[in-house]
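Project standup — Tuesday

K.O.: blocked on the structure for the chain from last sprint. Re-posting the sequence here as requested.
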Amino acid sequence: MLRTPICDLFRVEHPIISAPMAGSSGGELAAAVSAAGGLGMIGGSGPGPEWLREQIELVRRRTDRPFGVGFITSAPDTDQLMETALELRVPVIAHAFADPSPYIRAAADLDILTIVQVQSVELAREAANAGAAAIAAQGIEAGGHTGYTSGTLPLVPAVVDEVGDIPVVAAGGVADGRGLAAVLMLGAAGAWMGTRFVASEESISDPYAKEQIISHGADDFLLTRVYDIVNDAPFPEHVGERILRNRFTAAWHGREDEVSLRKAELARELAASLEAGDTSVRRVLAGNSAGMVRDILPAGEIVRRIVEDAEAILRSRPGELLG
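H.V.: unblocked you, prediction finished:
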């Protein structure tokens, strides 16, 4: 049975964390992953404190196992949302895209563990110094918002070497047992997985997004800032957004300066297209690992398959190579 430091740290059976994806990870998904032995995470940013409270209470009705809430820390409503998470004593809180220091201290006072998602070794160092209990090293392959600095393969061991005894989980490019086995060999203590769980029955992503993920491959996704620029999204400039290529990205990716100048016009164009149901301009957030996702399954089944496959690989493959 796979057992790593994050299993002990978070009191879970399996070294799998479902990423707290805004718009995809609600209480149903978090509860299903946790009930299956992983660490399920609610994407806490976006709908507001009352929605977050409802999702936390939903998880607790479904399972008594540990779970967490993740925030886009650079978003303007983070303070208010954190108050809800702290009030309800969520066991684990995750932060990304802004300095987590003030939030880590407040959580630690209540014995709440904090994961910090980072996109570089420098950010990992800062997270370690701030008191992170665990660090998610996110490569450029990841779906949704991620950095431009490094792929998961070189970033994970570099972060492991940098932060010492703090457990590191690999984020970006992991969607099956092969990926989990690979990042464990890099020194990671587990995997932080998003795209695979978007294509789950419990994900609150709409059916169109799920179908696009399972019908496209690794080459069909693009890291861009065009939508964030148009929408004035609260992300730092070193962060982009990996999405499915479409007509809008074909027209505007690589023309970010012009997008900034024509922001209001393009925002109206996007709104009109979406109102008309034009899917050629619609964002579908997913990582390159979509190329390994070919079905929509219950989240618990996803956890079980990944763990079983990773265990089989780790038992057999080394002997095959060294035989």
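K.O.: great, moving the ticket to review. The chain has 15 helices and eleven strands. Residues 31 and 62 are 6 Å apart (CA to CA).
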